[in-house]
Amino acid sequence: MPTYCYLCSDCGENFEIVAPMSESSKPRKCVCGGEAARSLQLEHAQGNVDGLMKDNLRWSWALAINPNQIKEAMKIHPGAIFNEKGQMGIRNRKEKLQRMKEAKMEEY
C-alpha cells in the first residue's frame, strides 16, 4: 500500500499514513486533535508520489527466466539482479522500461 503525507492545519505537524488509494483523500486526525489534509508538496519533497516514485525492489514474473539461464541473461541485462526463482528485480519504472527494451518486449 502507498504511503501518504498529511499536514495538520492547526499545529503544522506532518505525518505519514499507509492506506489504500481509495482512502488517500480523506482528512485525518492529528495528535493535537486538529484535522490534517493530504500534502502533495510533502510527498514530492520526499520523492513519494502515491508510492510510485520510490525505488522499491519488486520481483517481476513477466521478466523472469529459467534459473539455469541467469548467467546468459546477465549478458543481455547487465547490472540486473535475479532471485533463486529466476525473477528479475525491478527498482522503478525507468528500469522496467529499460529491461523490457533489452528483452524486446512492448508495454501495453
Q: In words, what does this structure look like?
A:
The chain is of the alpha+beta class. It folds into two domains: 3-45; 58-102, no CATH class. The protein has three helices and six strands; from the N terminus they run ββββαβαβα. It has a four-stranded antiparallel sheet with strand order 2-1-4-3. It has a two-stranded antiparallel sheet with strand order 5-6. A hairpin with a 5-residue loop joins strand 3 (28-29) and strand 4 (35-38). The two termini are 23 Å apart.
Please report the number of helical segments.
3
* Strand coverage percent: 15-25%
Q: Helix fraction?
A: 10-25%
In N-to-C order, the SSE pattern is EEEEHEHEH
State the low-pLDDT regions, or none.
none
Please give the domain count.
2
Structural class: alpha+beta
Radius of gyration: 19 Å
Shape: elongated
Question: Mean of residue pLDDT?
Answer: 82
Strand segment count: 6
The strand line-up of the biggest sheet is 2-1-4-3
Calculate the terminal CA-CA distance, rounded to whole Å.
23 Å
The largest β sheet comes out as: 4 strands, antiparallel
Characteristic terms for this protein:
two-stranded antiparallel ribbon, 4-stranded antiparallel sheet, alpha+beta, 21% strand, 108 residues, 6 strands, elongated
Short description:
21% of the residues lie in helices and 21% in strands. It has three helices and six strands. It has two domains: 43 residues; 45 residues, no CATH class.
List the helices and strands and how they pair.
Layout: E1 3-8, E2 14-18, E3 28-29, E4 35-38, H1 40-45, E5 58-60, H2 70-76, E6 88-90, H3 93-102
Antiparallel strand pairs: 1-2, 1-4, 3-4, 5-6
